[in-house]
Amino acid sequence: MPAGANTFSFAAVMLVTAMAPAMLAAMALAFDRQRGGTPALKWWSASLALEAVQLGALALSSWHFPTCFEAIHEGGQAMIAFLLLGGTLAFLGYRTYLRPLLFAVTVVFLGTSSCIAYPEVPLIVFLALRLGAVAAIGLAGILFWRRYRDSQQLAAIFCAGPLLIFATYLLAELLRVLLDPTMTSLDPTGDWRVILHTGLVLFCMICMVFAVQDDLHNAKASAEEKADSKSRLVTAIIENIPVGVCIFDANLQLVAFNRELSKLLGLPMELLERGISVRDLVRFNAERGEYGDVDVEQEVARRTAILLENLQFRMERLRPDGSMLEIRTRQLANGGYVMVYTDITETKKIEAALRKSEQRYALALKGANEGIWEWGDEINGVYISRRLREIVGIHGFGPTIASAEWYQRVHPEDLDVMKKLMSDHLRGKSEFYDHEYRIRGDDGQYRWVRLRGLGLRDEDGHVYRMSGSLSDVTERKAAEQELLRAKEAAELANRTKGEFLATMSHELRTPLNAIIGFSELIDQQVFGPVGHENYCDYIKNIHESGNHLLTIINDILDVSKAEAGMIDLYEEEVDLREVVASGLRLIGPRARENAVTLETDFAMPLALVQADQRRLKQILINLLSNAVKFTPSGGKILVKAWATPGEGAGFEVTDNGIGIAEEDQIRMLEPFTQVESGLSRKHDGTGLGLPLCRALIEIHDGWLELNSTLNEGTSIAVCLPVERISSKLVEAA
Predict the structure, then answer these.
(1) Among 157, 490, 546, 692, which residue has the least CB neighbours within 10 Å?
(2) 47, 56 in Cβ contact below 8 A?
């Protein structure tokens, strides 16, 4: 066959062969577009397209540029290998190396394009291109093998095998050229190795495209499995949440629901399972009285219109059984609707109870005339309630007032104390804040208020919030001031009275002493006999009445002096036996006259006491006088005395007289008080004896103890403190 015919036939074969990678590239791109875009397919499509372009260029070179045949073949082969590796990297997720590969393809393409001017391929360039192609295809095969060797061994063999065979073929060709000097380069007029190269490329590409399809299939299956799992999870969640859920499509047909919906609304499951519409559902509820006594069709139209006219809404519905439902509706992106039904019966009960509690609290505060205040880190200033503003008289402010403005309203005399008490509470020095001070209202008038509060503290002890109440105590303060003024006036009057009586002691006693003295002289007829016997009786009456009046005046003056603090003590070491003996000598005649026995009992050893002896005698005589007065004939009076260092000292008068009722014992210690009884009205007295005794012993820092039983007797003890007992003991009698 002539050379020209052979050349034509080989070029024609290459052109026909080029159609295969071109068609496969088009199919790969269409598949890529169908799958939504896969970077690997784009790289591999570019590799197939480049294979078709290379075959066309080789055919053209065999006709017109035979010297460029080898350069086009080696350069195209390297670029195809690089693009094939790029697709593999993109498919397996190694996208970091795609830019360097694209740069290598560009360099090789520019070098190959220069073959028209420089058709000879240097050995170093030949080796670089061939080794690059071997490395790229071999690396692609290794990567595929590593990807599928554990999970899909068949896929690993199917994808990695052709690539490794192709790389081995290229390496063998390179070794033949290097080791066999007689081997010629490619024959542009008919070298079938070009066709073999194309076949290997196509075989590799087909395997990898199938790998992509298998991967996409697996990904789709995995996605479907995940979607199915997610759908089951969502279904399980919807079925187990404590709310009713139903979903309607754009035509308002029920497409999904949970069992809680049937339970909450009391709807039969068979009614829901057949996919009723919103209108049918509303009609069913209206016919069974869920919406009350309404026209069924009008209610269906009204509720359907509400659903269609609102993208989302919330409503509450009271069911005939008394339960309360909350209904939330939202339109979906596809035109459908999702409805959520929640039983809020308990929530409504809690809200009602809370409202009642708040009303009760507000009523209690209003009834107590108190307002509420609060400040904290999240409040700008001090929150004051409406009632508080009414109490203080603040009208020109909103719900809060600046702290500085509040301080300006506090009375200047109360401000420092108010700040100090507040600071003490903030620093933890007091458990509660409680203070009364004056504050000025908008009318310029000051009102007395009582401010109470408690601070909440964080972990560091910082008060971040504080609240409390404010009450109007103006009237109470005014009453306290009035009471204080009345008390001061009474005390002043009492002191004036005491001072007057104490001062009048000499003026009262002097004329009485004269009356008593002269009546005594006349009674004793010192200067001669009285002319008539009746005058002697009159003089005795005058003398006894004067003595009695002097005793009363002395008691009154002593009580007044005690109240005025004008009694002075003349203290000395006193033997209580002498005090008792002196009292018995004075009271003895009266006791014998009433047939009352007097006895003594001294606790030994007996120590001396530091006291005013005259006042102790006065106390004892008063006690003995009362005992004799209220003890009937044949009765007995016992006088005890004790003075033990470190234990105590005093004396006690005990009788078996008429006694004192328990409810009258406290009154007996009040001045001018007498217990009304049949016997007491038979005896005179002013009711000053016991109060005077208590006043005199209290001046000694002691105390008086009264114990009595009605109709059994009375015991009165006068006690001195331990500090008044001397270490000196009296001699035994």
Answers:
(1) 490
(2) no
